[in-house]
Each structure stands twice: as C-alpha cells, then as structure tokens.
Amino acid sequence: QVQLVESGGGLVQAGGSLRVSCAASRNIVSINAMGWYRQAPGKQRELVALITSGGFTNSADSVKGRFTISRDNAKNMIHLQMNSLKPEDTAVYYCAADRDSSGRWRYWGQGTQVTVSS
Hints:
By secondary structure, the chain is an all-beta fold.
C-alpha cells in the first residue's frame, strides 16, 4: 500500500510558475513508476508526465518544454515544476504510483487544484 499526498497547488497568473509535489508514505525506490495526471472541469483525466524508477520521463505534448517531472528518492517525493503556465493548464492535478502489467495505476492521491488566471 502507498498513500500519496499532493501539495503546492494554488492560483497563479498566466506566464507564471508553480511546483506541485507528491509525498509517498513509503520508500519509492521500488515503485516502478510515478506520474502526474490532471483533470479539468468537464474533461477526462489526462496524463501530464511520468517518471520511472530508472529515471525515464515522458510528458504530454501540451506541456513539453514547460513542465518538468522529477523524483527525490531520499524524501520519497516527486515534483512537477510548471513554467509558462497557461489558463488551459487549470485543473486538479493528481499524483499516481505503481503501474500494473496492464498499465493501470494502483495508487492515487486526492489531488491539488491549480488555477491559472489570464
């Protein structure tokens, strides 16, 4: 079992930066992958970025060059640094951990709201 707690959301103006973090309840070294998803009102949840235990990262085309995912194994945390934010980045951001063989994530956080004003 892993509990995930997100933090760092808030209100920011367009063009600004924000960092959201996810703290895991246990050592994340053995977790095969962790990621960030987001869900805007009326839209489906979408993958923003993921990072594997080996450090491989992948991100959605819409955030490439603006968002960076990283992991801190010593603190059992992952972060999402978001720069050049746009109003369309407004969403609830969720942390996810541990993908099964089907690619589904076993654990989810409660989410943190990110609002970008124009």
